[in-house]
């Protein structure tokens, strides 16, 4: 995929703030600090379009990034950050659920996990939710540069079993640092947009 343009188009917490057109959207969801922003930036070959932070739980809104003026990546708030109050976590969950259950532009929801760690119960719940709505259940396992190839295969097996992923090819080991599997990921995404 040749990226000719990418911009932050809208920031929203309610449907009235969502872009009003029919462009296809791929949404990314995952726990705080799994590298969603770094993933988005590396896919579109930008350094800081999606804001990365050393402080987990930074994304508290839905961020719509328009790419090549023809489709969007949508960065959803991270979940599961322990230092945030229960009421704040509930608020984020409401924002995510409203978007996921009402957005007609949405073509796929991709779960982002950290390849170094076994998926949490929240990841399992989110994956089951994604599958229950008929999405493919693509899982991007970030931070692949931080482990050896042997450990990577073992961890992919753990992710597959814990989440109940039927097709191992839907789990993509990914590194934003050395761009591992950028092209393979685009190969999966392009038919959706």
Automatic annotation (TrEMBL):
<comment type="similarity">
    <text>Belongs to the TRAFAC class TrmE-Era-EngA-EngB-Septin-like GTPase superfamily. EngB GTPase family.</text>
</comment>
<dbReference type="GO" id="GO:0005829">
    <property type="term" value="C:cytosol"/>
</dbReference>
<dbReference type="InterPro" id="IPR019987">
    <property type="entry name" value="GTP-bd_ribosome_bio_YsxC"/>
</dbReference>
<keyword id="KW-0131">Cell cycle</keyword>
<feature type="domain" description="EngB-type G">
    <location>
        <begin position="22"/>
        <end position="193"/>
    </location>
</feature>
<keyword id="KW-0460">Magnesium</keyword>
<protein>
    <recommendedName>
        <fullName>Probable GTP-binding protein EngB</fullName>
    </recommendedName>
</protein>
<keyword id="KW-0132">Cell division</keyword>
<keyword id="KW-0717">Septation</keyword>
<dbReference type="InterPro" id="IPR027417">
    <property type="entry name" value="P-loop_NTPase"/>
</dbReference>
<comment type="function">
    <text>Necessary for normal cell division and for the maintenance of normal septation.</text>
</comment>
<keyword id="KW-0547">Nucleotide-binding</keyword>
<dbReference type="GO" id="GO:0000917">
    <property type="term" value="P:division septum assembly"/>
</dbReference>
<dbReference type="Pfam" id="PF01926">
    <property type="entry name" value="MMR_HSR1"/>
</dbReference>
<dbReference type="GO" id="GO:0046872">
    <property type="term" value="F:metal ion binding"/>
</dbReference>
<keyword id="KW-0342">GTP-binding</keyword>
<keyword id="KW-0479">Metal-binding</keyword>
<dbReference type="InterPro" id="IPR030393">
    <property type="entry name" value="G_ENGB_dom"/>
</dbReference>
<dbReference type="InterPro" id="IPR006073">
    <property type="entry name" value="GTP-bd"/>
</dbReference>
<dbReference type="GO" id="GO:0005525">
    <property type="term" value="F:GTP binding"/>
</dbReference>
């Amino acid at each position: 995929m040749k990226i000719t343009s990418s911009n932050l188009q809208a920031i929203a917490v309610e449907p009235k703030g969502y872009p009003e057109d029919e462009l296809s959207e791929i949404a990314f969801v995952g726990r705080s600090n799994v590298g969603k922003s770094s993933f988005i930036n590396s896919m579109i070959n930008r350094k800081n379009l999606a804001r990365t932070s050393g402080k987990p739980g930074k994304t508290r809104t839905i961020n719509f990034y328009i790419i090549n003026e023809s489709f969007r990546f949508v960065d959803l708030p991270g979940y599961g950050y322990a230092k945030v109050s229960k009421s704040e976590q509930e608020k984020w969950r409401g924002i995510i659920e409203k978007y996921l259950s009402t957005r007609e532009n949405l073509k796929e929801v991709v779960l982002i996990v950290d390849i170094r760690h076994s998926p949490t119960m929240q990841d399992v719940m989110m994956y089951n939710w994604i599958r229950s709505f008929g999405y493919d259940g693509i899982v991007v396992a970030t931070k692949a540069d931080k482990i050896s190839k042997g450990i990577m295969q073992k961890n992919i097996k753990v992710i597959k079993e814990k989440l109940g992923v039927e097709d191992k090819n839907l789990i993509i080991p990914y590194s934003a640092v050395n761009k591992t599997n950028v092209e393979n990921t685009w190969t999966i995404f392009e038919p959706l947009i």
